[in-house]
Amino acid sequence: MLNTDALSYFLTRNAHPQLYARLIVINTNGSVVAYSTPADSSQVRDQAALVSMLWTEHNNDDSHNPRYARTAQAASTKPESLQALRIEFGAYNIIAQRVDNELILVLISGKIPGRHGKDLHVEVEKSASEAQEASSGEDSRPIAIQRQKAKTLAEYIAKQTKSVNASDEGEP
Fold this sequence. Notes:
- It is a single chain.
- By secondary structure, the chain is of the alpha+beta class.
- It has 5 helices and 6 strands; from the N terminus they run αββααββββαα.
- It has helices at 4-14, 41-59, 72-76, 128-136, 141-170, and strands at residues 22-27, 32-35, 84-89, 92-98, 103-108, 120-125.
- The chain is globular.
- The chain starts with a helix and ends with a helix.
């Protein structure tokens, strides 16, 4: 079983006031598993709900959605599962990175000076190659740092989760 207290401590130790002020781990249903502190728990739940809704919307098979029309060839291939979302919302950047099939890591930036409004913009990464292209074309160093941190933390959490699951399976 995943030690949520240890995970929250890990997230708190890896938070950065300007680049990623809050780190949250949610499950694919949007429930909060752990988060960095200090934080207002109702605000964390609201942020988790926003990410979960966007993740679900962009992770579903788009073949039945007319907004995402596909060619016959593309519709016949298995859709790639969502790897990451980059969300620009008002004065904040949010990066959601797949940890494994059940967990999503969410990095929320500190308030970005000079950015106002309530506009919502979402970028989707469904493969490692898309993530690489997005990183190589970054025009903003903080975003590149945030993406790399999200990927590194997600890989670490995935390894920890696998080792916990392996040890749980070995117990009688």
